[in-house]
Design goal:
Elements: H1 17-24, E1 36-42, H2 48-57, E2 62-64, H3 65-75, H4 77-87, H5 100-107, H6 111-133, E3 140-144, E4 159-164, H7 167-178, H8 182-190, H9 195-201, E5 204-207, H10 212-224
Parallel strand pairs: 1-3, 1-4, 2-3, 4-5
Helix pairs in contact: 3-4, 3-6, 4-6
C-alpha cells in the first residue's frame, strides 16, 4: 500500500412538489441499524492486511478496497475504456487483464497521471463499497484502503484506524516478502504520505513493532474499544 495505482477506487434531481413532499415522508434509517464504517489503513510493510484478517477472526466484515479495485478494473468495460484512453492499450496485457506493473511504472513519477487514474477508479470502488455495505448486519464494518488519508476517505468514515511501524522494520518486512532491495522499498515509502501525518490524522493507531501476538492483542483492544 502505496501511492501506486494498483490499488491500489451528483446528479441533481429536479423533483416536482408532489415528489418532493413524498420523499420527505420517507422515514429516516434507524441509526442503530446502520453499520459504523471504520477506515483501516497503513503504509507498505505496516501489517495492515494481517490486522484486517484479525478483525475478520473477531467477527467483523472487512471490505478490501485495493483487492476490489483490481477486480473492478478487469470486469467493468466502461472503466477499461477510460483507463485505456488515459494510459494506452498497454494498460491491459495480451490476455485483456489489467497490467499492474506497466500502469505502476507509468504513474510512479507522474502525480498528474496518478491523480487522473484515481479519479477514474475510485468512484467505481466507492459504488461497489456502498453496495457491499447494504448487505452488512454487524454494527461495525471495516474499509481497508491504502489511500484513506490521501483521498480524504477518512471523512466518510466513523473512525480511522492506522497500522504503523518503524521505518526500518517496514523496509525489512517488504525486502523479505517481495525480494526488493533496500533502496526500492525506500523509494516506494518516500512516495507515500509521511507516517507522522497519518498518525496525526488517525483516530486510532496500532504500532506493529514487536510480534504477531502483540499485534493481535492490540487489534482486539482497539476494535472492541470503539464506541
Amino acid at each position: 500500500m502505496r501511492r501506486l495505482a494498483l490499488m491500489m477506487f451528483s446528479d441533481i434531481n429536479f423533483l416536482t412538489m408532489e415528489e418532493s413532499y413524498s420523499e420527505n415522508l420517507t422515514p429516516e434509517p434507524d441509526p442503530l441499524s446502520v453499520p459504523k464504517v471504520i477506515g483501516l489503513t497503513g503504509g507498505i510493510g505496516s501489517g495492515k492486511t494481517t490486522v484486517a484478517h484479525f478483525i475478520e477472526e473477531f467477527g467483523f466484515p472487512v471490505y478490501y478496497s485495493d483487492d476490489r479495485a483490481k477486480t473492478i478494473v478487469n470486469e467493468d468495460n466502461g472503466l477499461r475504456l477510460k483507463i485505456t484512453e488515459l494510459l494506452g492499450n498497454e494498460a491491459y496485457d495480451a490476455h485483456g487483464l489489467y497490467n499492474r506493473k506497466t500502469v505502476a511504472e507509468k504513474v510512479f513519477n507522474n502525480n498528474d497521471l496518478l491523480h487522473r487514474l484515481n479519479e477514474i477508479i475510485h468512484p467505481a470502488v466507492r459504488i461497489d463499497f456502498e453496495n457491499w455495505l447494504q448487505r452488512q448486519t454487524k454494527y461495525l464494518v471495516f474499509k481497508e484502503t491504502a489511500l484513506l488519508f490521501e483521498l480524504k476517505l477518512n471523512r466518510e468514515c466513523y473512525k480511522s484506524l492506522l497500522i504503523t511501524a518503524e521505518d526500518n522494520i517496514r523496509i525489512k518486512r517488504v525486502m523479505d516478502r517481495d525480494n526488493k532491495t533496500y533502496r526500492e522499498v525506500q523509494t516506494i515509502m518516500e512516495k507515500q504520505m509521511p507516517e507522522k501525518d497519518k498518525v496525526r490524522l488517525a483516530d486510532c493507531v496500532i504500532h506493529n513493532n514487536t510480534n504477531i501476538d502483540d499485534l493481535k492483542d492490540q487489534t482486539e483492544k482497539v476494535i472492541f474499544g470503539i464506541e
